Amino acid sequence: MPRSQLVTAGTLAQVQPRYVTVAETLARQIGEGELKPGAQLLGERELCKRFDVSRVTIRRALAELRDRGLIDSDGARGWFVNQPSLGEPNELMGFSEMARGRGLDPRSVVLVSKARPAEIDEADDLRIAPGSDLFELKRVRKLDGIAVAIECSRIPLRYAPGLVKIDFAAHSLYDALREAGCAPAFAEYVLQAVSTSSEQAPLLGVEPGSPLLMASAVTHDRGGRPIELSHSLFRGDRYRFRTTLYRSRRDA
């Protein structure tokens, strides 16, 4: 390799753009809890002095952190560290699994946990007969003690009859399904924007009319059987959905 292309650990800091160095330093402090959720960052002038960089560099670093969802601006008041949020990966994962993968503490408050007959629309989505035994589970989901979602799942009891005996305040639904031999494999997933109702608002700690993302899904096992029908309401300020889009081969 020509000498001019060599990059060593000692020269990496010089090669890396300075705004990236600033952004990574602040991101690490946020991740390690040195800068806690809700904390206000130093002003631009103080940050310039601390990192010995220009205001343009600081603004690029702050924009990078904002785009990553770590901080947000409150106008003239300055920049603040965001509360923990849950970003959906391009992979079928349970809430607890996603949260722990991001270093967050998932908790649940169970609102409904019962067996009941399947209604006609539910039976159609799950390919079972109307009136078949169904397990309904409704929970408020929390991250680091903050309510971020309301989830409602319905599962045909013939696939996992033991669900009615499990305490889902402490147990993962996906783990229970795997243990029952019907592990989730893929899901048909629909997102839409909705407003918080007066009933949902106190459960999520927001005002009625606040924006929510509603995710509706039919989850299947490896054999293609529909095993779960779910509707989840995520706080708009606590959830981000990320995906990758590809053009069709005919446009290549």
Notes on the protein architecture:
The protein has about 250 residues and is an alpha+beta fold. It is built from eight helices and ten strands. Strands 4-5-6-9-8-7 form a six-stranded antiparallel beta sheet. A hairpin with a 4-residue loop joins strand 8 (about 210-220) and strand 9 (about 225-235). Helix 3 crosses helix 4 (about 55-65). The radius of gyration is 23 Å and the shape is elongated. The two termini are about 35 Å apart. Mean pLDDT is about 85; it is low at about 1-15. This is Transcriptional regulator.
Give structural attributes:
252 residues, six-stranded antiparallel beta sheet, disordered N terminus, 27% helix, single chain, 10 strands, alpha+beta, Arc Repressor Mutant, subunit A
SSE-based structural type: alpha+beta
Low-pLDDT residue intervals, each spanning 5 or more residues: 1-14
The CATH superfamily name of the largest domain is: Chorismate lyase-like
Binned strand content = 25-35%
- CATH class annotation of the largest domain: Alpha Beta
Shape: elongated
- Rg from Cα: 23 Å
**How many individual domains?**
2
How large is the count of helical segments? 8
Beta strand count:
10
Could you give the distance between the termini?
34 Å
The description of the largest β-sheet is:
6 strands, antiparallel
Overall residue-averaged pLDDT value: 84
> Secondary-structure element order, as H and E?
HHHHEEEHEHEEHEHEEE
CATH topology of the largest domain, by name, is Chorismate lyase
Proper CATH architecture of the largest domain: 3-Layer(aba) Sandwich
Strand order of the main beta sheet, please? 4-5-6-9-8-7
Estimate percent helicity.
25-40%
